[in-house]
C-alpha cells in the first residue's frame, strides 16, 4: 500500500513541476448524501490545482454557497419543490403499510418512490429552465470556457447542461433514471444480476428469477414511461429536433462507478467504466475529547454506533422506542445520531447526537457494531474499517445494499415495520457476539484495501486523463449507436430463419414430389387395384384357358399385320404373366418418369379389356408422342409417352391378340413398353405394377 501511495505522489509531483496547469471543471451535483461523496472528489481536484465551479440551488440542503474549494453558481428558483421532510414522511407511510402485509408494503413503497421521483425530476426541470432562461447567467458560463462537466447522473441536470454547453462529461455515478447505473450502459443479464429493488442475490431460484424479471419490467416502465416523457417538452423547447435523454446519458466519456466488487455482486462491465467504490473512505482521525472519553469509558464491551443517514433523522415513535429499549439491555455503550423527541425508554448507556463524525467513529478500535439504514457511504466506511453491520433498510437501494453484505456473512437485517424490542435485541446480540460477522467483515476490509491505487486517486487520474486527451472516445463501445434489432442480431436471426426455411422447404417439396410418384406407382389406390385385378381376371377367364407365355421375345420380334403373338393354354395354377422386352432405348427424362409410370399402369390394366380402341400418333417433330386409349362405356382417357426404337415415321397400326392391343407398330418398326413389368394373381388377388420393371429409372 505504501508503494502505491508513493507512485501516486510521484506522479502528482511530476505534473506539478513540469508546467502542469489546472483545468476548469464545472460540477453539477445532486444534493443530499450524493454531495457528501462528490465533495470529497471536489476537494481532491482542487488540491491538484484545478478550478472548480459548483452549480447549486439557493435552497440547497448540504451544498454551501461559500467554500474554499470551489466557486458556487447559485440558481434561485421561484418555488421550492422538495424538502427533507418528504423522505421522512415517505418512510412513515411505507412502514405503516408494511405492517399490514408484504403486498401492501410493496405497493406503498412503489407509490412513495414514484412520488419522490416525480417531485425530484420536476425540480430538476425547473432548475434547468431557470438557468437557460437566464441569458446573462448562461453567457457567463459559456465565457468561462470550462474544459469538463463532472456530474452525478442520478438527476440528469448535469447531463443536459453538458450537452447544451457541448462539454465532455465524466460521471460520479451509482444511480440513473433506470436504477443502478450498470443497467444503462453495460450488459445486465437478469438471470444472475439482481435488479435494483428486488432484494435478491446473484444466486436465484426459478421463482426468484421470475421476481427479478418482474422488477426489471417495472424499472423499465418507470424509466421509459414516467421519467423520460417528463423531459420531452423541455428538450423540444431548448434543443434541436431529435434530442433524446437516453442518448445523452450514454454519451459520457467515463463512468466513475461508486462500486467495489468486494461489496457488489460480479457482473459484466464496459471499457469506460472504472470502479471507485469506497473512495470517500479514509483512516480515522482523532475524536473530539468528549467523544473519546465516552469511547474509553465503554471498557472491554466497546461501543455500538447508529445512524440513519443524512436524509432521515428518525422513524415512527414505536420503532424508536423499541430500538432504545433494546439498547438499554446490552452492556455496550451506544452513540446514536438522532433528531427529534427523545425516546422515553432511553437508557444511560446511549448518547444522542444530531451529528457524528461517522468515519472516525467506525475507525475507532472500541467500535463493535454499526446499526445503519444501508446507505452506500456508511456501508463502505464499515467495510473499510471492518465493522459488522445490523441493517434497518428504509428507502431506495438500502435493502439491496444490506442484502449484499448479508450474503457475504458480514451483516444481519431486521424489518423496521415489524421489529419489536426482542427482535432487535436478538439480532444485535447475534452481531455482537457471533465472531463470524466480524471475521467476514475483516476479510472484506482486507480485500477492499488491497488495491494498487486508492479509489480516490484512481478517480482523479481518469478525470485528468479525459482533460488531457479531450475525451476518451476510444473506450466507447458501439453498442448504443446500434438499433435494437441490430444489437440483438434479430436481423441475422431472421435471415438465418428464412434461409433454413427456403432450404428445407425446397427439400420438402422435392421429396413430396418424388414420394408422390413412387407411392402412386407402388401403392395405387387399393380399390382401383382390386377392381382392375378382378376385371383382368374376368377378362382372361372369358378368353378361355389361354396362357400368354410371352408377348414379346427379348430380341423384340417383328409382328406382321396378319399374325399376332403366340397364345398358349393357361396352366392349372392360374398364373398370368405379361412381359414386354426389347433392345434398350434411352430412358425418359426424370420429369416424365413418374407420369409415364402411372400412365403405363393404367394402359396395361385397360389394354386387355374388351372394347373399342381409338389410337392416334403424333410425330417427334411435334415434340411429343402420345397414345390415346379410350375404353367404351367409361370416361377414362389415359395418355402414355413412348420412345421409338428407331426414328421411322409411318402410319401406326395395332398388333396383338383380338381386342387385346398391346403393341404399336409403324411399318415394320415396333413401339412398345420396354420391360413393362408384371401382373400376377394367386390365391389372394393383387396387382403389383413396378416403376423399376418399367425400366424408367
UniProtKB/TrEMBL annotation:
InterPro entries found in the cross-reference section: UDP-glycosyltransferase, UDP_glucos_trans, UDP_glycos_trans_CS
UniProt-annotated location(s): Membrane
Name of a matching Pfam family: UDPGT
Transmembrane segments: 485-511
Keywords: Glycosyltransferase, Membrane, Signal, Transferase, Transmembrane, Transmembrane helix
Family the UniProt entry places it in: Belongs to the UDP-glycosyltransferase family.
Protein name according to UniProt: Uncharacterized protein
Amino acid at each position: 500500500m505504501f508503494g502505491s501511495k508513493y507512485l501516486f505522489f510521484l506522479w502528482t509531483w511530476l505534473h506539478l513541476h513540469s508546467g502542469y496547469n489546472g483545468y476548469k471543471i464545472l460540477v453539477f451535483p445532486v444534493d443530499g448524501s450524493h454531495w457528501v461523496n462528490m465533495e470529497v472528489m471536489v476537494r481532491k481536484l482542487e488540491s491538484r490545482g484545478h478550478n472548480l465551479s459548483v452549480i447549486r440551488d439557493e435552497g440547497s440542503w448540504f451544498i454551501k454557497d461559500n467554500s474554499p474549494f470551489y466557486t458556487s453558481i447559485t440558481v434561485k428558483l421561484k418555488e421550492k419543490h422538495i424538502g427533507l421532510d418528504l423522505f421522512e414522511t415517505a418512510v412513515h407511510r411505507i412502514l405503516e403499510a408494511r405492517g399490514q402485509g408484504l403486498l401492501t408494503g410493496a405497493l406503498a413503497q412503489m407509490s412513495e418512490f414514484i412520488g419522490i421521483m416525480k417531485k425530484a425530476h420536476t425540480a430538476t426541470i425547473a432548475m434547468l429552465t431557470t438557468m437557460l432562461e437566464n441569458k446573462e447567467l448562461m453567457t457567463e458560463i459559456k465565457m468561462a470556457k470550462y474544459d469538463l462537466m463532472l456530474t452525478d447522473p442520478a438527476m440528469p441536470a448535469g447531463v443536459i447542461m453538458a450537452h447544451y454547453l457541448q462539454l465532455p462529461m465524466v460521471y460520479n455515478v451509482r444511480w440513473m433514471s433506470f436504477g443502478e447505473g450498470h443497467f444503462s450502459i453495460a450488459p445486465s443479464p437478469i438471470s444472475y444480476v439482481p435488479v435494483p429493488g428486488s432484494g435478491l442475490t446473484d444466486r436465484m431460484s426459478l421463482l426468484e428469477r421470475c421476481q427479478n424479471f418482474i422488477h426489471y419490467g417495472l424499472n423499465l416502465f418507470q424509466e421509459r414511461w414516467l421519467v423520460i416523457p417528463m423531459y420531452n417538452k423541455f428538450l423540444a423547447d431548448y434543443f434541436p429536433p431529435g434530442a433524446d435523454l437516453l442518448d445523452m446519458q450514454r454519451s459520457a466519456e467515463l463512468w466513475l462507478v461508486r462500486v467495489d466488487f468486494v461489496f457488489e455482486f460480479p457482473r459484466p462491465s464496459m471499457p469506460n467504466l472504472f470502479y471507485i467504490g469506497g473512495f470517500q473512505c479514509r483512516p480515522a482521525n482523532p475524536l473530539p475529547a468528549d467523544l473519546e472519553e465516552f469511547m474509553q469509558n465503554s471498557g472491554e464491551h466497546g461501543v455500538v454506533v447508529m445512524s440513519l443517514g443524512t436524509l432521515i433523522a428518525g422513524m415512527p415513535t414505536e420503532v424508536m422506542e423499541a430500538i432504545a429499549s433494546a439498547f438499554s439491555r446490552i452492556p455496550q455503550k451506544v452513540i446514536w445520531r438522532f433528531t427529534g423527541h427523545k425516546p422515553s425508554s432511553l437508557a444511560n448507556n446511549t448518547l444522542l447526537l444530531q451529528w457524528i463524525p461517522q468515519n472516525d467513529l467506525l475507525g475507532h478500535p472500541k467500535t463493535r457494531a454499526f446499526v445503519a439504514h444501508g446507505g452506500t457511504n456508511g456501508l463502505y466506511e464499515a467495510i473499510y474499517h471492518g465493522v459488522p453491520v445490523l441493517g434497518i433498510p428504509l428507502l431506495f437501494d438500502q435493502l439491496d445494499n444490506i442484502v449484499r453484505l448479508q450474503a457475504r456473512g458480514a451483516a444481519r437485517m431486521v424489518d423496521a415495520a415489524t421489529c419489536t424490542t426482542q427482535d432487535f435485541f436478538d439480532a444485535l446480540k447475534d452481531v455482537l457476539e457471533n465472531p463470524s460477522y466480524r471475521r467476514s467483515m475483516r476479510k472484506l476490509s482486507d480485500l477492499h484495501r488491497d488495491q494498487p491505487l486508492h479509489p480516490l486517486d484512481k478517480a482523479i487520474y481518469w478525470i485528468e486523463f479525459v482533460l488531457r486527451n479531450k475525451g476518451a472516445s476510444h473506450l466507447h463501445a458501439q453498442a448504443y449507436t446500434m438499433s435494437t434489432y441490430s444489437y440483438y442480431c434479430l436481423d441475422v436471426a431472421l435471415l438465418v430463419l428464412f434461409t433454413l426455411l427456403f432450404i428445407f422447404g425446397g427439400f420438402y417439396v422435392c421429396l413430396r414430389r418424388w414420394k408422390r410418384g413412387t407411392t402412386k406407382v407402388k401403392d395405387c389406390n387399393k380399390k382401383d387395384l382390386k377392381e382392375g385385378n378382378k376385371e383382368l381376371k374376368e377378362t382372361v377367364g372369358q378368353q378361355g384357358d389361354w396362357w400368354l407365355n410371352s408377348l414379346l421375345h427379348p430380341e423384340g420380334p417383328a409382328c406382321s399385320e396378319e399374325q399376332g403373338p403366340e397364345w398358349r393354354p393357361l396352366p392349372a395354377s392360374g398364373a398370368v404373366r405379361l412381359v414386354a422386352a426389347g433392345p434398350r432405348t434411352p430412358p425418359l427424362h426424370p420429369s416424365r418418369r413418374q407420369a409415364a409410370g402411372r400412365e403405363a399402369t393404367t394402359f396395361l390394366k385397360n389394354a386387355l379389356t374388351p372394347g373399342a380402341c381409338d389410337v392416334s400418333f403424333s410425330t417427334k417433330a411435334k415434340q411429343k408422342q402420345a397414345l390415346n386409349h379410350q375404353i367404351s362405356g367409361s370416361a377414362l382417357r389415359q395418355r402414355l409417352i413412348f420412345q421409338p426404337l428407331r426414328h421411322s415415321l409411318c402410319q401406326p397400326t395395332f398388333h396383338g391378340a383380338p381386342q387385346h392391343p398391346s403393341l404399336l407398330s409403324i411399318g415394320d418398326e415396333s413401339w412398345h413398353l420396354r420391360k413393362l413389368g408384371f401382373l400376377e394373381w394367386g390365391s389372394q388377388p393383387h396387382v403389383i405394377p413396378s416403376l423399376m420393371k418399367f425400366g424408367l429409372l
